[in-house]
Write a structure and sequence with these properties.
This protein is an alpha/beta fold and about 425 residues long. About 55% of the residues lie in helices and about 10% in strands.
Length: about 425
């Protein structure tokens, strides 16, 4: 990642839940510079990366910086959208605070609004807007929104977050593939029709859009998006963040504590680094410790990160996979991950056994396993090596092993040392 950077002073707050910005935003200067260059050039962007990598924080920090430079910024989270009408409404709601956009929409959509739309709250505006949409009208109204932004005197960055989750939900509807194709084709056409205007788009999500459209045969629907991928922090950046958190929270730590924490995690997923520090800080408080010692790292890792306190966060990985894949494909993915966790690798022999296990339940099992492995690699769960596939993150591997060690039927023909890759 290069040299670490942080806005403001040399300390950052210990924040493990919401997105962060400003003085609490740590590192990612290189990615921000790349994004800034493409956005200012008018290029629509796909912001990708595995969960907890900080995509939302990066997008919002970019928006904050652009606002300081005279831009408008709108962030539409479509994770819970159930239809194209819901997505268009979310976008309209996100744009409502942009000065002049609401009134422009009110003029173009006069039949939906009999009052001054700028005097409505974003919530009330969204309710009225959604009430006026139907399956046949959403493309036309969506195009009106996009065109209003493109003609705006102020440049606008629009972020549509969690679009892949919405598309996966849409895919499960009757004629789901056609509905996904229709929406992606509409978005591509609407954005390309206003190329060179005031609107620039970022699409992002915590599950991969690229593997999804590849699996569906719709790659040409998203090839206008320039992909910028967020990877994990490198070791030196993770250690620096840990030390800055310690300074900010006045927590003395022995030499080697940050390094031991990074070794335990295995990879520098920003949220996991910050969460580990937060658990160590809680441990010091509850045990009246004035200094965190290297020996405390393993204790907190086992009892807190892998224990009940850490379950909610890590179970979110499992829930997101289920949402993204559906029950049948999730069952395959979970078996792959459990095998890789308990046996250290998901080997070719384990794959053969898995395909035989699901052959009577799912058609084209081998192709489905290939697609699912592609998703698990793209979304940062697994990586390939000479022995097959293994976890990238020690934390996720240990959590899956703890969760499934006692009731996962071993698929590979020979057991391997579960710590061999450490």
């Amino acid at each position: 990642m290069g040299t670490s950077n942080v806005s403001g002073d040399s300390t950052v707050k210990s924040i493990t839940g919401p997105w962060v910005s400003g003085e609490d935003f740590f590192d990612r200067e290189g990615e921000l510079q790349v994004l800034d260059r493409h956005i200012r050039s008018g290029n629509p962007v796909l912001l990708s990366g595995q969960r907890r990598m900080g995509k939302t924080s990066v997008a919002r920090e970019l928006g904050r910086r652009l606002e300081q430079d005279g831009w408008a910024f709108a962030f539409a989270d479509v994770e819970h959208a159930a239809s194209a009408e819901d997505v268009i409404t979310k976008i309209a709601q996100a744009l409502h605070p942009v000065r002049g956009i609401a009134s422009r929409l009110g003029e173009r959509l006069a039949r939906l609004f009999s009052d001054n739309v700028e005097q409505l709250s974003a919530y009330d505006f969204g309710i009225k807007f959604r009430a006026g949409l139907n399956a046949g009208a959403w493309p036309r109204h969506g195009e009106s929104i996009i065109r209003s932004c493109a003609e705006h005197e102020q440049r606008i960055l629009l972020v549509i977050d969690e679009l892949p989750i919405f598309l996966n939900r849409l895919l499960r509807e009757e004629n789901g593939l056609a509905l996904v194709d229709e929406f992606l084709s509409w978005l591509r056409g609407a954005i390309q029709d206003v190329s060179g205007g005031s609107l620039v788009l970022i699409v992002s999500g915590s599950i991969g859009l690229t593997p999804l459209v590849r699996r569906l045969g719709l790659t040409d629907r998203t090839n206008y998006l320039y992909e910028v991928r967020l990877g994990p922090w490198n070791r030196s950046t993770s250690i620096e963040c840990f030390h800055r958190l310690a300074v900010a929270n006045a927590l003395p730590v022995e030499d080697g504590v940050a390094e031991a924490a990074c070794d335990a995690l295995g990879v520098g997923i920003p949220h996991h680094v910050q969460s580990f520090f937060a658990r160590l800080l809680d441990f010091a408080t509850m045990h009246s410790r004035d200094t965190i010692k290297a020996a405390d790292v393993e204790t907190v890792y086992q009892t807190d990160l892998l224990g009940p306190f850490g379950q909610n966060d890590l179970m979110h990985y499992e829930a997101r996979l289920r949402d993204a894949l559906g029950e049948n494909d999730f069952a395959i993915a979970n078996a792959i991950l459990a095998e890789a966790a308990v046996q250290d690798h998901f080997t070719p022999s384990a794959r053969t056994a898995l395909e035989a296990l699901f052959a009577t339940k799912i058609e084209n099992t081998s192709e489905r396993v290939t697609d699912i492995l592609d998703i698990l690699i793209h979304d940062g769960y697994l990586e390939t090596n000479d022995s097959g596939h293994r976890f990238v993150s020690h934390l996720l591997k240990d959590w899956w092993a703890t969760r499934y060690a006692n009731h996962h039927p071993i698929l590979s023909s020979t057991r391997s040392n579960a710590k061999a890759s450490r």
